[in-house]
Amino acid sequence: MKISEISSCTGLSKDTIRYYEKFGLLHPKIEKHHRDYNEQDIEVIEIIVKLKDIGFSLKEIKMLLDWSKDTDENKEMTNEEIQNLKQIKEVFRHKQKQMIQKEEQIKKIKQVLLRAENKIQYLLEKNKRMNTNN
Predict the structure, then answer these.
(1) d(C-alpha 70, C-alpha 54), whole Å
(2) DSSP the chain
(3) What pLDDT is recorded for position 71?
(4) Is-contact 23 62, C-beta < 8 A?
(5) Each residue of 17-55: b (16+ CB within 10 Å) or e?
(6) Bridge-based pairing state of the strands 34-36 and 29-31
(7) pTM of the entire structure?
(8) pLDDT along the chain (134 residues), means of 10
(9) Spatial distance between the Cα atoms of 120 and 114, rounded to a whole number of angstroms
């Protein structure tokens, strides 16, 4: 699949796709100086977009993607792999705390919007009653 096709499928610009590739998030086959993307690349892009939407940096996303592709559950981990895993666990904890804080902020915003909506409805009804009395 050409870069224009993957751009069309994902809604991302060609420049963004190239940037993700340079950053090491995407690894298309290169044949005759042309990138050849596949379905797995689309899945990776979807993961990147979702993680970015919830606040992950590209560096954190790369760390997660690298870890997930290099993991072999049947072999004993090296000290470096254990340290990487602990680092990833800490990133998840931090992101989870951030998401909980955002949920609280959203709840507060929803309350403000609901109060505003109720006040608007009250004023509209009050104005309607005043107009029918005149």
Answers:
(1) 24
(2) --HHHHHHHH---HHHHHHHHHHTS---EEETTEEE--HHHHHHHHHHHHHHHTT--HHHHHHHHHHHHH--TTSPPPHHHHHHHHHHHHHHHHHHHHHHHHHHHHHHHHHHHHHHHHHHHHHHHHHHHHHHH-
(3) 67
(4) yes
(5) beebbeeebbebeeeeeebebeeebeebbebbeebeeee
(6) antiparallel
(7) 0.67
(8) 92 95 93 89 94 90 81 80 86 89 95 97 93 77
(9) 10
Torsion of CA 12, 61, 100, 90, to 10 degrees: 180
Tell me the two tokens of residue 101. Answer: 């804080």
Q: How confident is the model at residue 85, as a pLDDT?
A: 85
